Amino acid sequence: MDLGITDKRALVLASSRGLGLGIAEALVAEGVHVMLTGRNEAALKEASERLTAAGPGRAVFAVVDMSAPDAADTVVTAAIDALGGVDILVNNTGGPKPGPITASTGWTDAFDTMVERVISVTNLLLPHMRERGWGRILTLTSSGVEQPIPNLGMSNTLRAALLGWSKTLASEVAGDGVTSNILLPGRIHTDRVDELDANAAKRQGKTPEEVATASRATIPAGRYGKVEEFAAVAAFLVSDKASYVTGAKFRCDGGMIRSI
């Protein structure tokens, strides 16, 4: 299927690895010109060169620490300078350290990085999208917003804030040709999932593989998802074909979340 986004311009936050990089790769394969962002310059440089070589889109990058107070202005300016504008925004952030919610600290800093920066970047880009009559905003959260994940209390709480924001935003910009949707990953096999499994193994006195095996057993699909499977869903949601899909949240979880 031709997704109709050849030569569109995308900003993908937190895309030096994992889900963000996977989405960037899927978009470049569709002919989108993408800006990668993150803190690891070497990883970003390697990824941008590899994606551009594969084409047909191209990839550039900006080294940005989203915890910095001026991060939103910095990343938006860099994207506009490099791409000439942004048609597609993929909001993605790293997660906070695992731990019980009763022992969680640093809430204000985590909120600024995981919620406020996402909203600020979006607000800076929205006027141009609305003026052009076309825009896509896709925000990645977590399955924990529907089925809270043990030992990830801060993540469950802060990511849930983006649900109400995205839904409200969708109703305000739909008439201007801009969509806003949420995509929830289940257990997609990334370095982050390996880190969480290792953390759980330490708490439970098990090996990481024992934890991963038990985790896979709770998923109807019987396995962890692949990054490219998740990225394919994301690519559709930011495509021209998905122009009538907005204000929604989607799961890519192999049936893991039990609620309807």
TrEMBL record:
Q: Which domain of life is it from?
A: Bacteria
Q: Which Gene3D superfamilies match?
A: NAD(P)-binding Rossmann-like Domain
A Pfam match: adh_short_C2
Q: Which organism does this record belong to?
A: Salipiger pallidus
Under the heading SUPFAM superfamilies, the entry gives: NAD(P)-binding Rossmann-fold domains
Which PANTHER family does the entry link to?
Answer: 3-OXOACYL-(ACYL-CARRIER-PROTEIN) REDUCTASE, NADPH-DEPENDENT REDUCTASE BACG
Q: Which InterPro entries match?
A: NAD(P)-bd_dom_sf, SDR, SDR_fam
Could you identify this protein by its name? 3-oxoacyl-ACP reductase
Family affiliation: Belongs to the short-chain dehydrogenases/reductases (SDR) family.
